[in-house]
Amino acid sequence: MSISVNEASDIQREISERSAPDYLDQLEAEAIYIMREVAGQFERPALLFSGGKDSITLVHLARKAFAPGKIPFPLVHVDTGHNFIEAIEYRDTLAEQINAKLIVRYVEDTIKAKGLKEQTGKNASRNWLQTFTLLDTIEEFEFDACIGGARRDEEKARAKERIFSFRDEFGQWDPKRQRPELWNLFNGRIQKGENVRVFPISNWTELDVWAYLKREGIELPSIYFAHERELILRDGKLLNNTPVIEPDPEDQIVTRQVRFRTVGDMTCTAAVESAAATLDEVIAEITISRISERGETRIDDQQTEAAMEDRKKGGYF
Amino acid sequence: MDLLRFITAGSVDDGKSTLIGRLLYDTKNILADQMEAIERASKTRNAGEIDLALLTDGLRSEREQGITIDVAYKYFQTPNRKFISIDAPGHIQYTRNMVTGASNADLAIILVDARHGVVEQTRRHSLIASMLGIPHVIVAVNKMDLVGNSEDAFLEIAQSYKTLAEKLAIKDLTIIPVSALNGDNIVDRSESMSWYTGETLLSVLENVNVLKDQNQEDGRFAVQYVIRPQTDELHDYRGYAGRVQSGTFKKGDAIKVLPSERESKIAKIEFGGNEIPEASVLESVTILLEDDIDISRGDTIVSVNNSPIVSQDIEALICWMDDKKTLKPGNKYVLQHGTARSRCSIRGIEYQIDINSYEKLDEVEALKLNDVARIVLRTAQPIAYDPYQKNRANGAAILIDETSNVTVGACMIE
User: What is the ipTM metric for this complex?
Assistant: First the structure.
């Protein structure tokens, strides 16, 4: 090293005066680094964008990562046809605002083209069929990397997944044969037909996402905030009252003041009763909440202890 | 509030998952529905005692076998700090997973069973922690309740661990008597071990200074991507996107680009499209230079009078991670260092290290899964590196199998 003793002690002084970096800055820097690795390592990446808060966070991070340039990959949405209209409107407006390329593919089309059989009965959902459309879309555009907003704190199987998660030519995740992921050295080398799912906010918690949305002043779809809504009360959970949910004799139709804590398909996303109308109020509620995000709002994870692990092995995002 | 990443090492029976469960539970980071799920699962598995270990074992085969196979991440916070706990398996057959988990850790908790003291796996975990350059090590002597909370038993183990630690480069060591099952000295002080006057586990986790561990001296910036908007108003814009690996960069700083050795000055540093005065370690920024020189992904920008080593001949400690093929002299791989990739060829295995006894084994012909050795390799292009123990970010590299594309080796350049 070519610094003198005096300079060294200056550096020491500077370090002790410098305050510890804020965790949100650390998480943000890591996510931006990961986004740039994707742009640097892959030919045809895509960002999976649903209009939910996690993928909204991803878009914001991508804009910061490549400013003043445009985001160097398209936004891709697999539309089940069962999405909240507010999320779809938000999706279209944002893509237009930031001048990003938006690709939408419909589960409905895959069902028709391939003669797929939909689930029927109570709690029927297109969640699983989404995988078919996603894999077709990856093939159609030859995407070699898909950036997604999954977080490790969401669910136990996700807690095990790599940031660069390798998928074989069938889109499958093999939890026992994951590539070792060391330091910040992400290995995105693949053969043609294979692809990598990349999760830049793996290390963020639900609360981190909310705190970041607030700090950055990012707008969200209105369903994240308290509003009056007509709902189906089923097994203690409040579902949006919509024709896409198959009715059950036990259902009660109620009107409540609610907000959505996660925004997935209407068939498998429950609302929470809440009066929180601003980001601050939502954050306050989540901070004191004693129930986890997916536990409170997701019907799809509660079927078996390994529900998510099984879906991911099959190519789910 | 800042962030601390720590790894817990220990084997199945040391109560590692219970320790993490206990930390989450006592810091009120377990939510009601997660607790209910654990209670449900505990009932089907044992006599009904709540098994906090069930919190961390995420894969079906792990729950079935009652062991941790892969690295699991848990997130929790206290009013003072946010934590990422990296739970890695302790079995020797999963050494590569522990190396993986340790690569990003600021601190390691090594569990020792108070009934058994320092054993082979303690030596192994300590070697890995030291080899991976983890600056802080906490030895948690667990199951103190099973040795009658005896001070003598603790002191004896502490002494034998210190003897072991002297052989390793452990910078900051704390040894704590705990009972993860009962919660003694984890978050709350133990009433049954009033003779212990040191810190609790959580108190060390909350107060350890990780900012000081970062290399703040050597300016290193690996270029990830070149931002060129090519629009009318940003016609000549060329920004080098990357993360500061170590040191600090300021506007006006004289820099050098490696391996080309071209020099320039920093014209501007930007973050999210806005100018910022300086960028320090771990920040993801965009650097603009005064001169138009040829720079692409894989190049490193460094302070002009503080250069790393630029060479094609590299000596490194390696942990071999491929379960199918062995590493042999003459084999060729892709070396990934920072954002640079280069083909390389293994010139020789100097010696293997027995990770239990620390003995050096000569005349080793091939490395198998989980073997640790010192190797010599030659890269096709020069690599700009610092020794790992001086600069973790710029001394680490991975080996990738050229045909399967799997990551097969973790290298710490010496």
Answer: 0.92
